[in-house]
Write a structure and sequence with these properties.
- The protein is of the alpha+beta class.
- The protein is built from 52 helices and 21 strands.
- Strands 10, 11, 12, 13, 17, 18, 19, 20 and 21 form a 9-stranded mixed beta sheet that branches. A 5-stranded antiparallel beta sheet has the order 1-4-5-2-3, with helices on both faces. The protein has a 3-stranded antiparallel beta sheet with strand order 14-16-15.
- The radius of gyration is 41 Å and the shape is globular.
Length: 1389
């Protein structure tokens, strides 16, 4: 624990303050010294230049040039060295080490032997023998150099090194046996060297190979944990080589002359004068050739891990250029502010420290950073500090230049001057802000900033990615620029009340059209681009789809479904936008808003308040599980409320029709009329104002209309607060109603967030329900009380900047996190289930593919996501989930499925969401929280300390009080979704008795016969000479199969006890009737007597099938465990064919189309045996059952891709055999899936609670590195559902079973909603509607005419008959009949 805290303080806290520099005792002195000197250089260079030189352009040029050249050299050397490690040549050679290896910087992992006393005497300076031997060894090394400097792969290098290691070990053992005194001296020398090395913070050197393994393992240099993600397989091969521990040496070799010279870098000058320095014998070293010029290279004695510990790696040239450019920009902007005199006294040093930290992070960044969302090395974090520094410095410099201008354009709004004052002080706090983690990585900040601007200023929706954010803001700016041109032209000249300019009416029409169309489009352009691509380049799209189908062997219907929905929306918008433009133009041109002022506005305000109150407050409260948290049951109940297991779709209720009608009336009529009325009434004042006010009006109109179309849930409250505040509280502060409404929409949005945060804090820290998960929680609880003022300040700031307020380590102390978009997590999921199509063959054969429950059960959450994609948007519009907004989080809870649904984007007729499925059998904490949300409180009769009961249909006082102190509430109890109910049976129980196993084998063989007879290749197999020759032995009646490990009287019905085996006669005695029955059902007759080839082939396949089962059971079929293991092996398609049965390889369809499906069908037949015993014994009923199951039932292993395809295709019934290994249990389960409507409880969680808990987990696990699986922050807390929320985090922070990609649900796919409104409006729909109405009119007219008396032609004159005959050319028979009947009834002559 202490070491972890020290490591966090060193690598987290201190490194965040300095920009990445800290002393790492696990690294050598060379790396630590380089880090220190680099940081000092970056700190002192700007400080010294600023103090020594005057603030001129020359000083700025010197500083920027120095930093740029310095970074270019470092990045170039770093990139070239990494390229050498990737593509260079590794050369193994014998060479001398430097004197006293303990004093050198060990840049590679080493294995060396201390020299003996005789060797030390020989190598001692001044010894002639030692000098001569050293010279001889140097000459010998140079001579053999060219033989060993050859190009070879890394694996060859390893083999050579292993062989050399063996030789060295033999020499070591020989030398060490010379004298016992030498060995003692060697040990003493090693202990001294180890102590000296440990003092330097380095691992001790390795001794000879006869030392203990524990000492050898402890001497390895640990790799850098922050750079594990950058390590390649080739690197790991390099690291596995044992290399002598040597100082940093650089050898310059000339090929032509063969002369080598070495330059040795020592770390400690004090150690150089040591009298105990020795010289080692020639040892092995690995060099990398760094080519500089043709024919010239440098041998580098270095390794990749040490280089990664020294400097961060930039993967390509572009990253290096960006890093150099960022370093130049930091130096330029920072020194520019210093030259302008923005900083004085001590703050100059502080600002230089900030500059140094930003530049140092480009060389060696903080890993992990406080704002890093992932474990390991995060490349984007390296640029974040420099990017933020450049942004703030550029803004400060720009504002300084603007403030020095005398003609600075100043505008006022609500009495506030729109001029930014001095923001220099914020740059001082850079080290602290990065330490706390208030700045996200730069891509997250870009998404967040663009999303907030688009939502609050243009009425946009949430962004799902960086491309989505840029796309959304660009389309909003394009629409705004077009609207501003029309608005500016219309308001350029004043106009009177009796006449509204046509240009202004056109502007209003375009405003409504653009707002409606933009509200109907998703922020993600992927679906729109795919639709456009399919229309423009259909051939290319078809070829890509064919390639994907070949790769996946199944086509996903979801992309096509999304394209159809998008196409429907676009066609509908053409009609609706045309009609909306004409109506808006006509209404605004009629001056109705000016003529009836203020009567129209008062009526519209009252109508908006009334409709909004009924739609968004009264009806949702009456439909809640506990209305107003006092009533014990819903007032407005659905038909499914009292049903135990609903079997049909949810019935449309009258209040749902009312809700949809009021919702459409509100967002398509009331609020557009209010905005248009405000625009018209403010037109006179706007025509006399500046261009800035015209722009603000355009922005306000666009934002209010888009918000009304997308999410009108809180528009009526915003309108109410606008009227009350600006008409009664502060009337003097009002600008215009449109701007007031626009400002109040932003303020009200922030106020709602503030209330949610305060509710979360109060619920979480309430002392009577606090759940202390650890001792730290109990310690932090009382210390959080004195900091309530700071907590309130944090709450206000986090509300303004839309940042989560996270409980520190799950305690009652709250700290701010960095701002995030509504999507929250940076990762984009496209989860792929592990099956046989994406796993190695060896994993499929040796073990179960994806045998863990999480992988197998994830398919149910994937299907649940598809069901929600089909119906979620429609259900939200029907009010079945209550009120909702962007960012809301819901939990769907059923018997075994528990999923968190995160609503991300709320549009007009579309919803983008993400589903996070939790474990089926969760932890103890999860089970306690599931019980909390599923148990009812209706039976609670307590009031304080007594139990007086409660009034009918009301909750008790304690129950009502407890419900108010929860961060969640139940909004619906019977929400229906299409899904699969799971029934499972223990296979061991069903096969415990030998008779039941015998029955399974019988069904197995009968299924083989069935599939054989129904195979289209049967005639080919019966006539195949190769097959007939291989089956010649099976045609003999006296042939006996006597394999005792396969055939047994206990499980084989055709087993002959006296012959100890199975014969053709015994087989025919049992299965001949079934063969003849199956053959009789064929269209073309096949000979099926006892001597027929069909019986021979059936007999051979029956023997093959049983022998395969015995082989898979390891020839232990009598054991239940072995039998189940073998049957499961065959069930998943793993057949081990014996030598006797190799004839089946003549056509593999005999295995794949006959034996394999027979194994699976036998399991279903054996299961039916327990429900209808007498039916399965008759051949006709059994034959019909197999035929029905073959078409209606999907039977396959869960690792088969056909299983996922069947589930996503909504097949009615599926069956599989699952091998479950969990907590020491080894079970086989027969699992049946039945498609039906699943009933869920819908629980709405405080979204600020979810965001805060997610942010706390990320900080605790990534930055603070808490590895405790039972940490206090994930213990159960029923009032906040802490365990369920935290377990739904992104992996590895949480452990969700399945995380869906961002999925968009459209209202047009909901059948019930289409039945109310008739679906999307388009020209085809209009044409179809007119045709249907015309045909209906004709049918009604025909019915009326049929009631007339008399015949058709009776009483009609000849002239009328001639006229009708002529009309027959132009009319159909129906129309001619109707006309004749009409003439007869009117008696036209």
């Amino acid at each position: 624990m202490v070491s972890q805290v020290v490591q966090t303080l060193r690598q987290g806290v201190w490194a965040s303050v300095t920009g990445g520099w800290y002393h790492d005792p696990d690294q050598n002195k060379f790396n630590n010294s380089c880090h220190l000197y680099l940081w000092i250089f970056l700190l002192m260079l700007p400080l010294s230049l600023h103090l020594a030189l005057p603030p001129t352009t020359m000083a700025l040029s010197i500083y920027c040039t120095s930093i740029t050249v310095f970074f270019i050299l470092i990045k170039l050397a770093n990139y070239r060295l990494h390229l050498m490690f990737d593509e260079g040549e590794a050369v193994v050679r014998n060479d001398l080490s430097s004197p006293n290896p303990d004093q050198a910087a060990p840049l590679l992992q080493a294995q060396q032997r201390p020299p003996s006393r005789a060797e030390r005497e020989e190598m001692r300076p001044g010894s002639a023998m030692g000098t001569g031997k050293m010279d001889a060894e140097i000459i010998e090394t140079v001579a053999v150099k060219e033989e060993m400097d050859i190009q070879r792969s890394l694996t060859e290098t390893e083999r050579e090194q292993e062989r050399t290691t063996e030789k060295d070990s033999e020499q070591d053992r020989t030398i060490e046996k010379d004298s016992e005194q030498d060995r003692k001296e060697d040990c003493e020398h090693k202990e001294t060297a180890d102590r000296e090395t440990a003092d330097e913070g380095l691992p001790p050197s390795k001794g000879s190979e006869d030392e203990s393994e524990e000492e050898s393992e402890g001497q390895k240099e640990p790799p850098d944990a922050n750079n594990n993600s950058l390590e390649t397989p080739q690197d790991r091969q390099d690291d596995s080589i044992d290399i002598p521990e040597l100082p940093a040496q650089i050898g310059l070799t000339d090929i032509e002359t063969g002369v080598s010279c070495y330059v040795t870098e020592e770390e400690d000058s004090l150690d150089e004068s040591s009298e105990t320095s020795t010289q080692e014998k020639p040892t092995r070293k690995i060099y990398y050739k760094l080519k500089l010029l043709p024919g010239k290279w440098i041998n580098i004695l270095y390794d990749r891990l040490t280089l990664l510990a020294l400097l961060d790696r930039n993967q390509d040239v572009l990253e290096n250029l960006v890093a150099v450019f960022m370093a130049f920009l930091v130096s330029f902007l920072g020194f520019l502010l210093l030259n302008h005199g923005c900083f004085k006294d001590f703050w100059v040093f502080q600002f230089c420290l900030v500059i140094a930290s930003c530049q140092y992070s480009l060389l060696k960044s903080v890993q992990p950073d406080a704002a890093s969302p992932t474990h390991g090395h995060n490349q984007l974090v390296a640029y974040s500090r420099a990017a933020y520094f450049c942004i703030f410095c550029a803004l400060i410099w720009l504002l300084e230049q603007l403030l020095r201008r005398k003609d600075l354009p100043v505008s006022t709004l609500y009495g506030v001057t729109i001029v930014c004052h001095d923001a220099l002080g914020f740059t001082y706090c850079f080290p602290i802000t990065f330490l706390v983690g208030l700045f996200p990585q730069i891509n997250t900040f870009t998404i967040y900033l663009l999303e907030q601007i688009d939502m609050h200023f243009f009425g946009g929706t949430a962004a799902t990615s960086l491309i989505s954010a840029v796309y959304s803001i660009l389309r909003s700016l394009i629409a705004l620029s077009l609207l501003y041109g029309f608005c500016f032209g219309a308001l350029k000249e004043p106009w009177d009340e009796q006449h509204t300019p046509a240009l202004f009416s056109g502007f209003c029409g375009l405003l409504v059209v653009f707002s409606y169309h933009l509200s109907r489009q998703s922020s993600d352009p992927t679906v729109l681009l795919s639709l456009v691509k399919s229309k423009i380049m259909p051939t290319l799209v078809e070829s890509e789809e064919e390639e994907e189908e070949e790769a996946t062997e199944s086509k996903d219907p979801l992309p096509e479904k999304l394209q159809n929905s998008m196409k429907e929306i676009l066609l509908s918008d053409v009609v609706v936008c045309s009609v909306a433009y004409i109506l808006t133009f006509a209404i605004t041109a009629s001056t109705v808003f000016l003529s009836l002022k203020p009567f129209v506005t008062i009526v519209l305000y009252a109508l908006a308040g009334t409709v909004g109150f009924v739609t968004h407050y009264l009806i949702p409260q009456l439909r809640k599980h506990h209305p107003w948290l006092w009533i014990s049951h819903p007032v407005l109940k659905t038909k499914e409320y009292h049903q135990f297991e609903p079997r049909e779709d949810a019935v449309l209720m009258w209040f749902e029709r009312l809700y949809v009608g009021l919702l459409c009336f509100e967002k398509y009529v009331v609020f557009p009329a209010i905005v248009l009325s405000a625009l018209t009434n403010d037109g006179f004042a706007l025509s006399h104002r500046k261009n800035c006010d015209v722009l603000l009006t355009t922005v306000a109109g666009l934002k209010l209309l888009r918000s009304s179309f997308c999410d009108p849930s809180f528009q009526f409250l915003t309108l109410l607060f606008t009227l009350v505040f600006f008409h009664f509280d502060c009337p003097h502060a009002s600008e215009s109603f449109l701007l007031d409404f626009f400002i109040m929409s932003i303020v009200f949005h922030k106020m709602r967030e503030l209330l949610l945060k305060l509710h979360f804090i109060l619920v979480y820290i309430a002392p009577w329900q606090i759940a202390w998960g650890s001792a730290f929680h109990a310690f932090a609880q009382p210390f959080a009380v004195p900091h309530s003022a700071m907590l309130l300040l944090q709450t206000l700031l986090t509300t303004v900047f839309y940042t989560p307020l996270a409980p520190f380590l799950g305690s009652a102390i709250f700290i701010s996190s960095y701002p995030r978009p509504i999507k929250f997590w940076e990762r984009n999921y496209n989860t792929k289930r592990i099956d046989n199509s994406n796993s190695r063959l060896v994993s499929q054969v040796d073990k179960e593919t994806g045998c863990d429950d999480s992988n197998l059960n994830s398919i149910f959450y994937e299907y649940l996501t598809r069901s929600l994609q089909h119906s979620l948007c429609g259900d939200l519009m029907l009010g079945r989930w209550g009120n909702y907004s962007a960012g809301d989080c819901f939990i769907l809870a059923s018997d075994y499925l528990n999923a968190l649904v995160h609503l991300i984007e709320i549009g007009n007729g579309l919803v983008t969401f993400q589903l996070r499925g939790l474990e089926f059998r969760g932890t103890y904490c999860q089970q306690r929280e599931v019980e909390a949300i599923t148990e009812g409180v209706e039976e609670d009769d307590a009031c304080c300390c007594c139990e007086p009961g409660h009034l009918p249909h009301l909750l008790s006082c304690n129950a009502a009080f407890n419900l108010r102190w929860l961060a969640w509430e139940v909004t619906a109890t019977k929400y229906l979704l299409e899904g699969y109910s799971i029934s499972e049976n223990n296979a061991a129980t069903m096969l415990q008795v030998y008779d039941l196993r015998k029955l399974l084998i019988t069904y197995y063989l009968k299924s083989i016969i069935y599939y054989l007879v129904h195979s289209p290749k049967l005639s080919t197999w019966l006539k195949d000479a190769t097959v007939q020759e291989a089956l010649l032995s099976y045609t003999k009646w006296h042939h006996i199969e006597r394999d005792p490990q396969v055939f047994s009287v206990k499980i084989d019905e055709d087993y002959v006890h006296c012959l100890q085996g199975v014969t053709r006669a015994s087989f025919c005695n049992v299965y001949l009737e079934w063969i003849q029955h199956c053959a009789g059902k064929m269209e073309t007759p096949v000979d099926s007597d006892e001597d027929s080839p069909l019986v021979t082939l059936s007999y051979a396949l029956s023997v093959l099938g049983r022998r395969s089962l015995g082989t898979a059971s390891h020839n232990m079929s009598n054991s239940l465990e072995s039998f189940l293991y073998g049957f499961n092996t065959l069930f998943k398609g793993d057949f081990r064919i014996a030598t006797k049965d190799e004839w089946v390889f003549a056509d593999l369809d005999l295995l794949q189309k006959v034996v394999a499906p027979a194994v699976r069908m036998s399991l279903k037949l054996h299961q039916d045996h327990f429900t209808c015993l007498e039916e399965t014994e008759e051949a006709s009923i059994l034959y019909e059952a197999i035929t029905n199951y073959r078409s209606s039932l999907v039977i396959c292993h869960e690792s088969d891709p056909a299983w996922r395809k069947a589930v996503l295709s909504s097949r009615e019934t599926l069956l599989t055999l699952r091998h479950m290994i969990d907590d020491g249990t080894d079970e086989y389960k027969i699992i049946m899936l039945y498609k039906r409507h699943l009933s869920f409880k819908v629980i709405k969680i405080n979204k600020e609670c979810v965001r805060g808990l997610w942010a706390g987990q990320q900080q605790e696990l990534v930055f603070l590195r808490n590895r405790n699986p039972e940490r206090g922050s994930i213990q159960n807390s029923k009032q906040a559902l802490r365990n369920m929320v935290n377990s739904s985090c992104d992996q590895p922070l949480g452990y969700p079973m399945y995380v869906s990609p961002l999925t968009t649900s459209y209202a047009g796919t909901h059948r019930t909603l289409r039945s109310i409104g008739g679906g999307a409006l388009s020209f085809d729909v209009i044409r179809s509607w007119l045709c249907s109405k015309w045909l209906r009119l004709l049918r009604q007219l025909n019915a009326v005419l049929n009631t007339c008396t008399g015949t058709v032609w009776g009483g009609v004159s000849s002239s009328s008959q001639l006229l009708l005959s002529t009309a027959a050319i132009f009319f159909s028979n129906m129309q001619l009949s109707l006309i004749s009947k009409l003439l007869h009834c009117l008696d036209w002559t």
